[in-house]
Write a structure and sequence with these properties.
It contains 14 helices and 2 strands, in the order βαβααααααααααααα. The chain is mainly α. Strand 1, helix 1 and strand 2 form a beta-alpha-beta unit. Helix 9 packs parallel to helix 12. The radius of gyration is 24 Å and the shape is elongated.
Length: about 300
């Protein structure tokens, strides 16, 4: 069932898990963004296919299905319908947008696809952006990690979250912000695009592991808060018709913190597994290149060796 974007005056029925998959809405900005980005990626794949080049199916599935599909699901499904009604639902949405979507998009290698399909002039523009000082600063791993860590604290412990509950525009931009900050941090770590800020695998693993206690600490802090996050908004909802089914706001906040804690650790472990797999594959590829180099040196030495009795 499709509904328009939720307003603060709209009355929703009791939330159930089934409604996540059956109660859909339209948030204009994320909707248009998801359709256009996925469409441009598929257009690039089509261009490669028409000229006889091959593009891995796994990358397409990662970007379009897992990446933009997760973005669309998080903002247009029941998660998007109830994300201003229940803090716990918002927290599930937060984790999808800030972790699942950026990882999936990075594994889709859209920059590589663009470099292979764009005309000469736009390709030069893209390369100029990738090698610009701004790109190098934003992709500097310690800075990207700081932005990724500080952003949720700023969201939940400032007036920013209250503003997102009061304004549909701020709310939609928050969704885009979560994906953008996650991409800045995870793309150079796990993506396969030629990006600045690339560091060695040991440092990538260290930065990924550091995200685990960060989510746990933030989740525990939210669980132990005596002040309600977005309290004015959520308490006002309980005064209306939905008050008959809305849970206690403090219990709801406790659940939301637990979701942030548990989901952050779980998804972080998935990130670690992906990164470790990439590290192993890179090491194996490097070993093969070294074997070929040694074989070529050995063959050259045999050719240069004088014949017996010469």
């Amino acid at each position: 069932m499709i509904h328009p974007v939720l307003t603060t005056d709209e009355v929703l029925p009791r939330f159930t898990l089934a409604r996540v998959f059956t109660d859909w809405g339209i948030d204009p900005l994320p909707f248009v963004l998801a359709v256009w980005v996925a469409g441009l990626y598929l257009w690039g794949v089509a261009v490669l296919t028409r000229r006889g080049d091959r593009w891995p199916v796994g990358r397409t599935l990662a970007f379009v299905v897992a990446g933009m599909g997760s973005f669309f699901f998080a903002t247009q499904s029941g998660l998007g319908r109830y994300d201003t009604t229940l803090l716990s639902v918002h927290m599930v949405q937060h984790m999808v947008l800030s972790m699942v979507v950026p990882l999936s998009l990075a594994l889709g290698a859209p920059v590589t696809l663009a470099l292979r399909t764009l005309p000469a002039r736009p390709r030069r523009w893209l390369l100029a952006v990738l090698h610009s000082r701004v790109a190098k600063v934003l992709s500097f791993p310690p800075l990207a990690f700081l932005l990724y860590v500080v952003s949720p604290w700023a969201l939940y412990f400032s007036s920013w979250y209250d503003a997102s509950l009061a304004s549909a525009y701020v709310h939609e931009m928050m969704h885009v912000h979560l994906v953008a900050v996650g991409a800045l941090f995870f793309w150079p770590l796990m993506g396969i695009d030629p990006l600045p800020g690339r560091v060695g695998y040991p440092f990538r693993v260290l930065l990924t592991v550091l995200t685990l206690p960060f989510h746990a600490f933030l989740g525990v802090t939210i669980m132990g808060q005596s002040t309600l996050i977005g309290g004015e908004h959520y308490l006002a909802l309980r005064e209306g018709p939905m008050g008959a089914w809305l849970p206690d706001p403090y219990e709801e906040q406790h659940l939301a913190g637990g979701i942030l804690w548990g989901a952050g650790d779980l998804i972080g472990l998935v990130f670690f597994a992906v990164l470790f797999t990439q590290w192993v594959r890179s090491s194996m590829a490097e070993a093969k290149r070294e074997d070929r180099r040694l074989d070529m040196m050995e063959a050259r030495a045999r050719r240069e060796q004088p014949p017996p009795g010469g």
